[in-house]
Amino acid sequence: MNTINRITVLFLIALVGAVGFCSAARGDDTGGSNATAWLAALDEKIGETADGTAASPAKAEGWKKPIPIGLYLDYTVATDYIWRGINLSEFRGEGREKLNHQMTAGVNYDTGDFGTIDFSVWFEWYGANDNTSGVNSDGNLQEVDYTISWTYDLSKLCEKVPVELTLGWIGYDFPQFSDDPGFTNEYFIALALDDQTLLGEKWFALNPTLTYYQDLDDVGALGQGSWMEFGISHEFELAKCPKMGKIPVIKDLTITPSFALSMDIGYIDSGTRLAAAQYGLDVGYDLGKALGLPEQYGSVSLTGFLKYSDAVADNSSGFANLNDEFWGGFSVGWEW
């Protein structure tokens, strides 16, 4: 337990140092001003009519959300359920893949100056649940997760630190099991850096994130293990491409490649080691925008994804093995 506490303290010190370093690196850089002026000039040019006169401004949106509450719902179908490099929906002799069904329902409250509070429930169904859990049951509900989190934009305290801080708790419920094996929980700390704001508009945004998970229920190989993930991603909105921004269907697509590297700190196996590298590609379609859905009804999106998890670590002596995994799926989401 003392070892875990030391790791947690060192991690928090490293995070504070990273934020300070990023703040210092930002300085008073105004390198993005030229790009901003160029975009403004381009926007003004686009706003002109054929005879060179300025076009009439578009009618402003009149709807505003009446309450500081957000709702979201997502349904996903995937070929496998991969969690921290472990395939939780595959068994010996499975043969043809059986689809995995997942759904998220959540609500958040924007407090204004004090950040955003979020609560969500995640459900996962699997048709061959009996084979993976080893429990004879008529139910296919394999897992239910409860997440409570608080997110705060640190730039409100210092505009030179464009970082979002999230503190949260996750409870994992396994309905097919009873007593202690049927539930575990952990807390997490996450930082998300807006690197384009930090380094200027000319910078190719990578949106780096760093998340630390601490088990609270003796799941790990050391009794209470930890897990850390570092990730980057970049959204390519085709609507912003000069030649694609006016093509029907294509203009409402967003392509997002991503990469994540995870570290096992006594969670699956004893000791500290790199666990897995995950490569991803998401293609999202803004269905609500394409159909002209009024803003007051929320937004609807469709997303297809492909993922590949490369097991960096050798097979462990812990409770699970890490293997190379390739999977994909499709999701539909609504947000208000």
What keywords describe this structure?
twelve-stranded antiparallel barrel; 42% strand; 5 helices; disordered N terminus; Porin; 336 residues; alpha+beta; two-stranded antiparallel sheet; 16% helix
Question: What features would you describe in this structure?
Answer:
With 336 residues, the chain is α+β, with helices and mostly antiparallel strands. The protein has a single domain (2-46, 69-335), classed as Porin. The chain has 5 helices and 15 strands. The strands form 2 sheets. The chain has a 12-stranded antiparallel barrel with strand order 1-4-5-6-7-8-9-10-12-13-14-15. Strands 2-3 form a two-stranded antiparallel sheet. β4 (100-110) and β5 (116-126) form a beta hairpin. The longest helix has 25 residues, at 2-26. The two termini are 42 Å apart.
Q: Which structural category fits the helices and strands? A: alpha+beta
Number of H- or I-type helical stretches: 5
Q: How would you name the oligomeric state of the polypeptide chains in this document?
A: single chain
- Give the strand order of the largest sheet, numbering strands 1, 2, ... along the chain: 1-4-5-6-7-8-9-10-12-13-14-15
CA radius of gyration: 23 Å
The total count of strands amounts to 15
Q: What is the rounded distance between the termini? A: 42 Å
* CATH architectural group: Beta Barrel
Domains, number: 1
